[in-house]
Structures are given as structure tokens and as C-alpha cells.
Automatic annotation (TrEMBL), chain A:
GO terms for biological process: tetrahydrofolate metabolic process. Keywords: Oxidoreductase, Plasmid. This is Sarcosine oxidase delta subunit. InterPro entries: SoxD, SoxD_sf. GO terms for molecular function: sarcosine oxidase activity. It comes from Sinorhizobium americanum. Its EC number is 1.5.3.1. Pfam families: SoxD. It comes from the Bacteria.
From TrEMBL, chain B:
Belongs to the GcvT family. Gene3D superfamilies: 2Fe-2S iron-sulphur cluster binding domain, sarcosine oxidase, alpha subunit, N-terminal domain (3.10.20.440), FAD/NAD(P)-binding domain (3.50.50.60), Probable tRNA modification gtpase trme, domain 1 (3.30.1360.120). GO terms for biological process: tetrahydrofolate metabolic process. This is Sarcosine oxidase subunit alpha. Residues 893-979 form the Aminomethyltransferase C-terminal domain. Residues 170-299 form the FAD/NAD(P)-binding domain. It comes from Sinorhizobium americanum. It holds the Pfam family SO_alpha_A3. Residues 501-584 form the SoxA A3 domain. Residues 600-872 form the GCVT N-terminal domain. InterPro entries: 2Fe-2S-bd_N, FAD/NAD-bd_sf, FAD/NAD-binding_dom, GcvT/YgfZ/DmdA, GcvT/YgfZ_C, GcvT_C, GCVT_N, Sarcosine_oxidase_asu.
């Protein structure tokens, strides 16, 4: 676990200010295949290395962010606002 | 006993005597002493008893690694067990007690364990106490725990204050020895923000006992001047008595500062300890090296001491270790000690050197015995002689102190805290820090650099490289000139010693000796992690600072491999023990967690409420009146009164969220499973919120106050969770929606006014017409109160099944408005009611709470199947709710339960069995989720989740509670026990 989490709005903050939700997966369309929904709700990869996770700056700016964290070294490579990511994915 | 204090020399202040007690006996020391140095100065060799065999033990080290001299300091709530006497600064009036002895340190009954030692070897309790098994918990374990012990913690609460703090710096230097001082000076002069921490009271580390001169100054004076310069720099923070105990992710270091552990009466306005988290751009570990003991027989006898410790007591504290000293050395450091002892006129009887030649030319008076080892010692409570083994011959030499110099192991603990494995260096004969560290460098003895000039140069050079990389310009480093340093060259580890006599200890604190290591290897536990656990080597509070490397060397030798192949066990924080006080900080007593009180708390209190803690909230539970003997009497009265007249209940702790924006309705439509898009302005609607897996997450009412402004309520328990969830939906899932969320729970005092007279009472303070025609069921509007003096929000919603309203007013007016309603309702019989009554009323009506919404139910299970929108294109949970199994007929469904005999009762959590079925979980049909006594029904009533329950109304069942051995015949029924047609909502 990282000791400090970089919030794109508040800078480096102690991890105690944040709540982790888990893998930052894209939500399937409402009419997507049942298999896709099953994957989204229940199945998680357990990769060695970079992993994107949703963190909530609960005791800070209350923004949801996507943190790219290395599961081996715990280094945080990047973080960005979840809305920015959702918008950029919607465009692609 | 006469004094061992030298008449001169050292850094103690002989003009500042201090008195203290050890086991109640008054003794004297000086300012600048540790408890250990003061005990030694008083000739106290015996200071403790060992963990397992209760062997007499003395002071072995002069620092943090001390395994033997553990004492209890202080009394009452300030009792501090297991304090290392070597780290405890002496103060006037200090009270110390020895540990693990009975009845006294001198005469300890537990020492009989020594006679049993053939049965107490490694793994003895795995082998010995296997049978009969029931005796383990009742007999063996308590007896072993009593016999093998550390100090006892006090049961009194700690009267002192602690706190936690953050610090930030460019360079954190850990260790204020020569390397650390040189590093901090270099970085400080370059303008970097530097924090220098050291566990000791004085900066200087080894300089405080080194006899070398630096730039012509005594080493200790150099340290004093260097720290004075550091303290004069505004960009440098020197933190003494501060142990950096762990290295964590993000280059955050944990440290504990002992602010007032060296004073008798801590100042009230200051904390006694402070826990630091230090965020460092870069760190330099200059933690020095630990001298290794030598594993010979009786190496634990009081009077046997590490050579560097003996040198510290002599040169820093002015204490002679004895009158006739011997030195057993494997490197040149033993000769420096001999020279210093002789300079202080302490007789050195013999120097026993395991090597054939030394790097120094010794010309003192001591007898020099080369190619020899000490194989055993003699003496009872203190050493009286050594047995020297040379060329097959053993000779006994009378001594009263023995120094052992087994070579040095770099202190690399912190560098290994983030998962890196130390690497064995054959060249340095030491485990070195892992390669490829990021954000942390090592220098000096911690990096196996031995001589003083090289340490100073390395500290400066590393520091220069680090601050240069930050873009700071570093003034040229001028290295000081060192004279008289002898270094410790050519140390070759001597793992095992020929001809060992008696117990040769590897781990002093856990009483692990040479044979235990051999036993572990021969019994197949030779992997270093297994050997550790089998023998308990390195598992004591000292975490094997002295013992681990020796154990690895011995295992390597037994297996015939290099220490590199054995490897180390895992290094974990904390480097030294950290008190619970420091870890707790200010979060004790009332500050343990926040207390949430409703704006109507004082109103409830003055009506005599009994409060119950629900989460952080204090909720009014019931309101006893004179003459009521039990809570049930109060609750029955409140329940009947609500249904006959009216009641007022504080519901302020319900979560309240304001949702606004041009897409607010669309947003609600997606987070609730039922439709919200077309909710008219001025109306409230009950909403069910699902999780993505289709299960119900939370429920509550949401009202449309304006076209684009909604007022949502959540359950009390899930208020924070729902807010987080809505923010996730708005930000991460649908950022394209124009919606804003604000938690307004604390802004509003909210009260329920329920009962047939509710409208009449409420109309007396509400300005608008609230007749059934003007303000019907599920109306929700802003209203004017008291002739326009105040505005609030009024909702006609009912949890009780009665004609009922909820009125929200600005929090600060809550108590006044509640008072006014009580006054307005006085003639109508209004009474306050609490959450117990609220619960009875809702169970009578079959309304659900999180007892039923327990994460396993979908809307249809609770009879809400028709609420789920079939036409909405998407909402949270829609896709997964389609799963076939969630529509199966044997799903648990909400049902009512009543006992056949109204005099009988049953509890929530009980299981429902088919009549005649065996009382086993295999025949389980479901379970009771909520139960209460209903004064209207005249018996216990309950809600339950039962397989296919909605089709089983009328069926006789058995309510079974296996834990309490209860079995109650009962009948399943409609979950709405009272007014099933909802006629009372519209009276």
C-alpha cells in the first residue's frame, strides 16, 4: 500500500484520507452480454505490476481518481480524475 | 560494593549527582549516565534473569540491541516494562525494578529451570506438552507463560499525552554518528532541508567514545561543534532521542521521538512521546554497525560484555568494567580497547586473539595469546575466570570482566523494510543492504566502511551527490584530518569456537544456545525461516540484533555452505519497540472516535431520553416516565400513544443529500431501480437503490423540491456510503450528466410527527394549509413556520403507518421547533418516542430496514418486485438483476411470523424450520430478521426471510434457536400486521 497518494487536485496526501474501491474497470453498456457484466461485477485480474484502481479522496476534495499503482513495488506511476478518464474513454 | 567510576574522563557531569533506586536500593549516578552506566558504576553486574532458564544476566551492550538488561521503570500508570537500561537516561529519582525473577533477583526460584534444561531445548513444547491435549490451555500454557517472562504492563491508564506529526525534508539522515554528521553538514551548508535523527541523547554516535582526534579536536568535541553548527542552520532540524523505526512506501519513514522519557515529572503541556511520519525526498542511512558476540560457553555470564560497549562505558561514562579484564577478539578493535583500559589504569590480564597476527602493534602490559579462543567462563552471578583454549590445551585465567569482539555487522534493517533482501559480501564478511534501493543510500559503518576518516568522507560524498541531484550547488567539501584512529581491519567471522564448555548463547534474550541451532539443523529445520521459528532465535523483543548473523553463520557452517546461501530472515518494522501510547497518539478516551449528536440531542435529553450508540451517533432510544419499571413499559406506552394520539421522534441522523443540476432527475433515475424522471415537483417518492450485483443497497425517500433540486434521505447507517456511491456514479460513470451533490445531513434538524393528531398539531406552527386536499400523502414542500419567522421542509411520509410528517428545519432551530411542537401538541397528548418505538411501529407495518436489506435480497424478495422499472434503459443493478436465479421461487422472501402461543416469544436471528423437521441447519427454511413485542397484536411479532415465504402465509413452522436451545411453534403470516389497507395514512 502506498503511504502517500497523489491526488490530481490536492497533491501528495496521506493514504488515510482516501478510500480504495478496487480495479478501475469500465462499466459495460446496459445491454452488454451477461458475460461482460459478470466480468465487471465479479472477476478481477491479479496482475504483477501496473494496476489501475479507483480511489476516493474521501477526507479531502471528494473526487474519485484513477491511480496507477505497481502491485509489486507499490510505486504510484500516475493518478488522474476519474471523470477525465471516463470522458477520454467515451471519445475513443 | 565499591565504585567502578573513574575519577576523570567521559562525558558525565561529576558535579551533578543523581540518586535512583534499583529493586528499591538507593544508588547514585551522574547527569549524562544511562541507567546501565550508573548500575555498572555501582558495581551492579547482575541486573536481570534470562527468559527461559532464569540465568543471571548482566549488561551486554551500551545501546539499542541490549537483550539482557531489561528493567521496569516507573510506577502506576507510568510503569514502563522491558525498558533497556542501556537506552534509559538517568534522572533524579528514577525507580527501576528487575524482571522475571521471584522472589528476588539474587535468589530466583525460576533458576531451577536451568536444571531442567536438557528438556527445554528447541521445540520442547512441541514435543513435550502434546498430551493430554486439554491440559495445554488450562495448565501448560499458563505455567510456561508465568515462568518465561518479560515485565508486566500496568493495568492503570497512562496519564501522559502522546501525539502524531508529519515532517517533510529533502534529505533525512538517520544516525548522528561521524557519517551522519558529515552528511548533514554537507547538505545543510548546501541549503537543503535536512532532518537528522538519532536515537541517543547526544549527537556523535561512536565519536562519543572514540579516542581519535579530528582536526586536532577530541572526537566528542568535534561532534559537539558539528551539532552546534547544524542547530544554527534554519534549514536543518536535529532530532535527538528519535528512533527511525521503519521505511515505508513513498519514502515515508516512521520515527518515534522520546520527548520526556528522561525526566521524572513530565511537563503537563508537553507530550511524552511523538510519533513522526517523515516524508523524505531522499534518505541516508548512517546507522552504524553492531558488534557481534562470540559464541563460547558461559558467554552470558554477568561481566561479559561487547568490546565496543566496554569502550563506551570506559570513555563516555567514565566507568571501569572491572579490576582485571580480559579481551577476546577476532579483529583489531580489541587492541583499541586494551589501550584505552590501560590508559585508564584498568588492568588488562589477557588479550585472546583468534588470529595469528594483528594489524596493530600492541605494546601494552597484557598477556597476548594468539591463535586462541575463550571456550568457557566460570563464576556464579558474575564472571570469575575464563578458560582459554589454544592448541588443544585449556588454561584458566582469573578475571572479573571479559570483552568480546566478534566483528561488526552493518545495521541495515531500515534498508530491508520494503522487501529487498540483504546480500552477503564475502569480501566484507557481512550482509549488506539490498541493491537497487530507490530514495535511500547507506554510508559509513552501515555500508561496512570501517575507519573514521573514510566514514566522514563517505557521509559527505553521498550527501553531496544527493543534494547536487536536487539541483543545489554544494560548497566544496573540506574533509577533516583524523589522527589516532585504529579502525577494525581484517575481521574474519568466527562462527563456531572449538572446545566450547557449557551453554554458549546465540540469542541471549530468548535463551537460544549453540545446541539448539544444531538440533534445528539435524531435525530438518535448517532453512533460516524454519530455524528461527523452531528455536525462537531472533524472535524476542530485540528481534535478534545481536543473534541473527551468528545464527546464520552457524547454520551455514552446519550445512557446509556460505552464509550467502542461508540468507537472512525478513526484516520488518519496528527497528526497536514502539510504545502503544505513541502509536495511539491522541486517540484515547473521548478522543478515540468522534461523537455525533443530533441537533435535537438536548431536546431529547431534557425529556429524559435513554440514549443508544448507533455507529457514531447517540440516538434517543426511549423516554421513561415516572413509575415505569422496564424499558418495555415505556416503549409500549410510546407505541400505543403514537397510534392513539401523536408522537415526536428525532430522525435528524438520517442521511440527507441535496442533488441539483439540470440532469438531477436523470441521475436519480439511474441510481434508483424505480422511476424518478417524472416525479412531480412537490412530491416525495420511496426509492430503492441497488448494487451492481442486483442486491438492494439502501432505501429512502427522495423529494423533488424544484424542477432541478432534490432532497434525498438515506438510512442512518449508510449515509456516508451512499454519498460516496453517488459521487462515484456522478464522477466516474456519468461525468456527462450535469449534477451536483451536497451532504446536508448536519444542516437540518429533522423530526417525525406521527399519529392521528399529527396534522392538527403541525397546523398550529405551519403557515400553509396542510389539509389532506392541500398537502396529501407524499406531498413534499418548503413551508413557512410561525408566521414566516422560519422556513423548513415538510414531507408527508410515514414509517409508522400513521398519518405522519417529517419536518426539517435549520439545525440551530431544531430544539426550539421541537419545543414548539410539544407545546402545540400538549392538549393532544403528544409524547416523544425513540428508536425502539420506531422499530415496533415499523415491524407492525412490515416496513424493512437494514435488518432485512442485508445484502442478500433483491427487490422481489421484499415484495418490491413491481417497483423495479422495466422501461428504464439503464440503472445501477439492472443487468445483474436479470439473472435467472434471482427470480427463483425458492428465494428467501419477506414474511411475518407470530408465535402460536402469544405468551411465547423468540429472538431475531432464530431459524425457521418446517413443522416436524429435524432441528438442523440442513432443514433451515430461513431466519427471523426483526422481532418486537407488539402491544396491538398482544404478542411477539417478527419479520423473516423464508424460502418462498410469500406463498406460505398461514403455514405452521418452528422457530429454532440452536444457540440458546429454544424452539417455538409459530405461524407464517402477512408481514403487515397492522392496518394492511393503509387507511390510517389518510385520517
Amino acid at each position: 500500500m502506498a503511504s502517500l497518494v497523489p491526488c490530481p487536485h490536492c497533491g501528495q496526501r496521506p493514504k488515510e484520507e482516501f478510500t480504495i474501491k478496487g480495479a478501475a474497470l469500465a462499466r459495460p453498456a446496459a445491454d452488454a452480454d451477461a458475460v461482460d457484466w459478470f466480468d465487471y461485477v465479479y472477476l478481477r485480474d491479479n496482475p504483477r505490476g501496473a494496476y489501475e484502481e479507483y480511489w476516493h479522496h474521501t477526507s479531502g476534495c471528494r473526487r474519485w481518481i484513477v491511480v496507477t499503482r505497481d502491485t509489486v513495488t507499490h510505486e504510484v506511476a500516475a493518478s488522474r480524475d476519474a471523470a477525465d478518464r471516463a470522458r477520454s474513454e467515451a471519445r475513443t | 560494593m565499591s565504585s567502578y567510576r573513574l575519577t576523570k574522563g567521559g562525558l558525565v557531569d561529576r558535579n551533578a549527582p543523581l540518586s535512583f533506586t534499583f529493586d528499591g536500593r538507593p544508588l547514585r549516578g551522574f547527569a549524562g549516565d544511562t541507567l546501565a552506566s550508573a548500575l555498572l558504576a555501582n558495581g551492579r553486574m547482575l541486573v536481570g534473569r534470562s527468559f527461559k532458564y532464569h540465568r543471571p544476566r548482566g549488561i551486554l551492550t551500551a545501546g539499542a540491541a541490549e537483550p539482557n538488561a531489561l528493567v521496569t521503570i516507573g510506577r502506576g500508570g507510568r510503569t514502563e516494562p522491558n525498558t533497556r537500561a542501556t537506552m534509559q537516561e538517568l534522572y533524579e529519582g528514577l525507580e527501576a525494578q528487575s524482571q522475571n525473577r521471584w522472589p528476588s533477583l539474587e535468589f530466583d526460584v525460576g533458576a531451577l529451570n536451568g536444571l531442567l534444561s536438557p528438556f527445554l531445548g528447541a521445540g520442547f513444547y512441541y514435543k513435550t506438552f502434546m498430551w493430554p491435549a486439554p491440559l495445554w490451555e488450562k495448565f501448560y500454557e499458563p505455567v510456561i507463560r508465568k515462568a518465561a517472562g518479560l515485565g508486566k504492563a500496568s493495568y492503570e491508564s497512562d496519564p501522559d499525552a502522546y501525539e502524531k506529526s508529519w515532517a517533510h525534508c529533502d534529505l533525512l539522515v538517520i544516525g548522528a554518528g561521524p557519517t551522519g554528521l558529515a552528511a548533514a553538514l554537507t547538505a545543510g551548508r548546501a541549503g537543503a532541508r535536512v532532518i537528522l535523527v538519532d536515537e541517543g541523547a547526544l549527537p556523535g554516535g561512536s565519536l562519543l567514545f572514540d579516542t581519535a582526534t579530528i582536526d586536532g579536536k577530541a572526537a566528542a568535541d568535534f561532534a559537539r561543534d558539528a551539532s552546534a553548527e547544524l542547530q544554527s542552520m534554519p534549514n536543518v532540524r536535529l532530532m535527538m532521542r528519535t528512533t527511525a523505526f521503519g521505511w515505508y512506501d513513498g519514502n515515508v519513514f516512521g520515527a518515534v521521538e522520546r520527548v520526556q522519557k528522561h525526566v521524572r515529572d513530565p511537563a503537563r503541556q508537553l507530550v511524552v512521546e511523538r510519533l513522526w511520519r517523515i516524508v523524505a525526498r531522499h534518505a541516508l542511512l548512517a546507522s552504524g554497525a553492531e558488534e557481534r558476540p562470540l559464541v563460547f560457553g558461559g558467554n552470558d555470564r554477568p561481566g561479559v560484555m561487547m568490546a565496543s560497549a566496554m569502550r563506551t562505558y570506559l570513555n563516555r561514562y567514565g566507568v571501569a568494567p572491572g579490576r582485571a579484564t580480559a579481551i577476546f577478539t577476532t579483529d583489531d578493535s580489541g587492541y583499541a580497547l586494551a589501550r584505552d583500559l590501560e590508559a585508564a589504569h584498568v588492568d588488562v590480564v589477557a588479550i585472546v586473539d583468534s588470529r595469528s597476527s594483528a594489524g596493530v602493534d600492541y605494546r601494552g602490559k597484557a598477556r597476548l595469546i594468539r591463535e586462541a579462543v575463550v571456550c568457557g567462563t566460570k563464576g556464579r552471578k558474575a564472571i570469575s575466570a575464563i578458560e582459554v583454549h589454544r592448541g588443544g590445551q585449556t588454561e584458566t585465567i582469573a578475571v572479573d570482566a571479559l570483552a568480546m569482539a566478534g566483528g561488526f555487522s552493518p545495521i541495515i534493517h531500515l534498508a530491508c523494510h520494503r522487501g529487498g533482501k540483504p546480500a552477503w559480501s564475502a569480501e566484507k564478511a557481512a550482509f549488506l543492504a539490498p541493491d537497487g534501493l530507490n530514495g535511500l543510500d547507506l554510508a559509513g559503518a552501515a555500508a561496512a566502511t570501517t575507519d573514521l576518516a573514510a566514514c566522514l568522507a563517505e557521509g559527505a560524498a553521498r550527501s553531496q551527490a544527493i543534494v547536487t541531484a536536487f539541483g543545489l550547488s554544494c560548497p566544496p567539501v573540506v574533509l577533516p584530518k583524523v589522527e589516532g584512529d585504529e579502525g577494525t581491519h581484517d575481521s574474519k567471522p568466527l562462527w563456531s569456537i572449538p572446545g566450547v564448555k557449557g551453554k554458549a548463547f546465540v540469542d541471549f534474550q530468548n535463551d537460544v544456545h549453540l545446541k539448539d541451532i544444531g538440533l534445528a539443523v539435524s531435525e530438518g529445520y535448517s532453512h533460516v525461516e524454519l530455524a528461527k521459528r523452531y528455536t525462537t532465535n531472533g524472535m524476542a523483543t530485540d528481534q535478534g540484533k545481536l543473534s541473527n548473523v551468528n545464527a546464520i553463520g552457524l547454520i551455514a557452517k552446519a550445512r557446509g555452505v556460505s552464509p550467502a546461501e542461508v540468507g537472512t530472515t525478513t526484516f520488518r518494522p519496528f527497528y526497536t519497540p514502539v510504545s502503544f501510547g505513541a502509536l495511539t497518539g491522541a486517540h484515547t478516551g473521548h478522543h478515540f472516535q468522534p461523537v455525533r449528536k443530533s441537533p435535537l440531542h438536548d431536546w431529547a435529553k431534557k425529556h429524559g431520553a435513554v440514549f443508544v450508540e448507533t455507529g457514531l451517533w447517540y440516538r434517543s432510544s426511549w423516554f421513561p416516565r415516572n413509575g415505569e419499571q422496564t424499558w418495555r413499559e415505556s416503549v409500549d406506552r410510546e407505541v400505543l400513544n403514537v397510534r392513539q394520539n401523536a408522537g415526536l421522534c428525532d430522525v435528524s441522523m438520517l442521511g440527507k443529500i441535496e442533488i441539483s443540476g439540470s440532469d438531477a432527475a436523470e441521475f436519480l433515475n439511474r441510481v434508483y431501480c424505480n422511476a424518478f424522471l417524472k416525479l412531480p415537483v412537490g412530491r416525495a417518492r420511496y426509492g430503492l437503490m441497488l448494487r451492481e450485483d442486483g442486491m438492494i443497497y439502501d432505501d429512502g425517500t427522495t423529494s423533488r423540491l424544484e424542477e432541478n433540486r432534490f432532497f434525498m434521505t438515506t438510512t442512518t447507517a449508510y449515509a456516508a456510503g451512499v454519498m460516496n456511491h453517488l459521487e462515484f456514479c456522478a464522477q466516474a460513470l456519468w461525468p456527462e450528466l450535469d449534477v451536483r451533490l451536497a451532504s446536508i445531513t448536519d444542516q437540518w434538524a429533522q423530526m417525525a410527527i406521527a399519529g392521528p393528531k399529527a396534522r392538527t398539531i403541525l397546523q398550529r406552527i405551519v403557515d400553509e394549509d396542510i389539509s389532506d386536499a392541500a398537502f396529501p400523502f407524499l406531498a413534499a414542500r418548503e413551508v413557512s413556520l410561525f408566521g414566516g419567522a422560519l422556513h423548513g421542509c415538510l414531507f408527508q411520509i410515514s414509517f409508522s403507518g400513521e398519518l405522519a410528517y417529517e419536518l426539517a428545519v435549520p439545525a440551530g432551530y431544531g430544539e426550539s421547533v421541537a419545543d414548539a411542537l410539544m407545546e402545540a401538541g400538549r392538549d393532544h397528548g403528544i409524547m416523544p418516542y425513540g428508536v425502539e418505538t420506531l422499530s415496533v411501529l415499523r415491524i407492525e407495518k412490515g416496513h424493512v430496514t437494514h435488518n432485512e436489506i442485508n445484502g442478500t435480497v433483491v427487490p422481489a424478495d421484499l415484495g418490491f418486485g413491481k417497483m423495479v422499472s422495466a422501461s428504464k434503459p439503464d440503472f445501477i443493478g439492472k443487468a445483474m438483476l436479470q439473472r435467472e436465479g434471482l427470480a427463483a421461487s425458492d428465494r428467501p422472501q419477506l414474511v411475518g411470523v407470530v408465535p402460536l402461543d402469544p405468551k411465547q416469544s423468540f429472538r431475531s436471528g432464530s431459524h425457521v424450520l418446517a413443522k416436524g423437521a429435524a432441528a438442523t441447519l440442513e432443514s433451515d427454511q430461513g431466519y427471523v430478521t426483526s422481532s418486537a413485542y407488539s402491544p396491538h397484536i398482544g404478542s411477539t411479532i417478527a419479520l423473516a426471510l423464508v424460502k418462498n415465504g410469500s406463498s406460505r402465509h398461514g403455514e405452521e413452522v418452528v422457530v429454532w434457536n440452536g444457540l440458546h436451545g429454544e424452539s417455538t411453534p409459530a405461524r407464517l403470516c402477512n408481514p403487515v400486521f397492522f392496518d394492511p389497507q393503509n387507511e390510517r395514512l389518510h385520517v
